[in-house]
Write a structure and sequence with these properties.
Shape: globular
Structural class: alpha/beta
Distance between the termini: 56 Å
Helix content: 25-40%
């Protein structure tokens, strides 16, 4: 038998790992296809210390990522093959774990730290109400319909939105799942001590080791190969893939698929339509090309394959776009100023959100090195804005229309680093990225908007990644990507080991106690 995996992000790599390790597929019979020339999916990056690094996005993770850590425990770390990726992450966090002392800063650079995270009794009751409302009653409902307007001014909401990235107009289904899934994290929202980091950026520390490990076993990678379509045997109650159409180097090829084979498709990406700016130019507007074309083609006439229009399309961009930016310093002027401000060594301060920013700017200073090829004379930090369509406080135009220099200038004014601004700008390269669909996973949806990982009646076909549906688990995480892959393999290859249950903080006595103490 053979296996065909579409997408080389976390879900695709995990699928290959579990097909080989649990599904009994020979490594040489597993093929991974990706339209991009570089693997990594949403965790890919570009650039250099000379031209400026470009890190479009990242993923939060923590100790209850049961599937992800199972996978990481099998893979040798990239810098030391004698330890696993899992053990390296844990050891790194023992030494460089986050202790955030200045998570929220107001306009005067004072720390916001209200009792109960600023939640009123009404706010706390509304949170409990959402937590106990069955998901079946939340189809298409928005978060803002569940809370008063005052809730969205609280410390809790600012901490939540800048870590989890939901907005008031987003899905209550997703927020409810996140609350149950990350209940154990809620009491530590302001210091982020429950959040784990990798030694390097997630592509270097996680994606590359897994890909290298798979290649050594014989798994076949096909970069710059776009999957155009998947064909199916005509049948009313069975879903059996029988061919895959791909294009590479301008040549179209049809690959035959037997019923004993497996086809797993990553059907959507939050970096679809990504554009990149420069120090002097803003990111261009998103291209007019069709988003997630493969998913759209597969879903045409197939209700069980979900509704991509729920998540992708120009009409959604106002509710889903982010701007992120990566700053590379030739001299650590900004890094040193932030270390002095936060009282933390670089990499340990966690996130710093500037609550007076119209863009709701959030910054992170990286531990050095953040990149495998990062030289000693380069320092890197990162930031993002969740309201890129708003005009800045100091730059009178939307963030998405700003160059890297303008975004960096806005940050420096908020932090009152005007005296050092010229030197910082002189020795920094700030590269902005527009991600038009970064927040798409949060859009209001019904329970059928995303296809099941293995649709009912499927013999050899499944979906993996953030836009495949798994009960209880929270999307927009590495755990979700790995779990969808493992679940797909375990379903299509029943002899496989099954994934562990999804962690639910509401079933964890200690997490429940601590969360209730926070709300009491």
């Amino acid at each position: 038998m053979r296996a065909h995996v579409v997408g080389s992000g976390m879900a695709g790599l995990a699928a290959a790992a579990y097909l080989v390790g649990e599904g009994g597929v020979l490594p040489a019979n597993v093929s991974i296809y990706d339209a991009a020339a570089e693997l990594g999916g949403a965790m890919a990056f570009a650039g250099s210390a000379t031209d400026g690094y470009i890190l479009p996005t990242g993923r939060v993770f923590e100790a209850q990522y049961r599937c992800a850590f199972d996978l990481f425990s099998r893979v040798p770390a990239i810098h030391d093959p004698s330890v696993s990726v899992r053990d390296d992450i844990l050891a790194f966090n023992d030494r460089f774990g986050i202790i955030d002392r200045m998570r929220l800063l107001d306009r005067d650079l004072k720390v916001r730290d209200s009792p109960h995270f600023g939640l009123s009794l009404r706010d706390r009751l509304d949170l409990l109400k959402l937590a106990v409302t069955p998901e079946s009653l939340l189809d298409a409902k928005q978060i803002e319909a569940f809370f008063t307007s005052a809730f969205f001014e609280t410390d809790f909401w600012l901490l939540w939105v800048t870590l989890m990235n939901s907005l008031p107009q987003h899905s209550t289904i997703e927020m409810r799942r996140f609350m149950h899934r990350f209940l154990h994290v809620l009491p530590n929202l302001s210091n982020m001590t429950s959040i784990l980091r990798s030694r390097y950026n997630q592509r270097d520390a996680i994606i590359l080791p897994i890909a290298s490990w798979l290649k050594q076993q014989g798994v076949m990678f096909h970069p710059a190969t776009r999957v155009l379509d998947v064909g199916f045997v005509p049948a009313r109650d069975r879903i059996t893939a029988n061919e895959i159409k791909v294009i590479a180097s301008g040549q179209t090829q049809v690959i035959e698929v037997s019923p004993e084979d497996i086809v797993l498709v990553t059907n959507g990406s939050q970096v679809d339509g990504l554009t990149i700016g420069s120090m002097t130019s803003p990111p261009p507007p998103p291209p007019g090309t069709e988003t997630c074309p493969l998913w759209r083609r597969l879903a045409l006439g197939r209700v069980a394959f979900g509704t991509p229009d729920t998540f992708f399309g120009p009409a959604h961009i106002a509710d889903t776009a982010w701007v992120t930016f990566t700053v590379t310093e030739a001299q650590p002027i900004f890094t040193n100023l932030m270390s002095a401000l936060t009282g933390s060594e670089p990499g340990r301060a966690g996130l710093v959100t500037l609550t007076g920013s119209n863009w709701l700017l959030t910054l992170a200073i990286f531990h050095k090195p953040e990149f495998l090829d990062q030289p000693d004379d380069a320092w890197v930090w990162w930031g993002y804005g969740l309201y890129p369509a708003r005009a800045g406080n100091f730059v009178s135009k939307p963030m998405q229309e700003c160059s890297g220099a303008e975004i960096l200038g806005e940050v420096l004014h908020h932090l009152k680093f005007e005296r050092e601004a010229d030197d910082i700008l002189k020795h920094s390269t700030c590269i902005p990225c527009l991600l038009p669909y970064a927040g798409s996973i949060w859009l209001p949806r019904s329970r059928t908007s995303r296809p099941q990982v293995v649709p009912q009646g499927s013999i050899n076909f499944g979906f993996i990644g953030q836009f495949a549906e798994l009960p209880l688990e929270a999307a927009f995480t590495m755990e979700y990507a790995v779990r969808t892959a493992w679940h797909a393999v375990a379903t299509l290859r029943p002899q496989s080991r099954k994934p562990p249950p999804v962690y639910q903080g509401s079933h964890d006595a200690a997490a429940l106690r601590d969360a209730l103490a926070m709300l009491a």
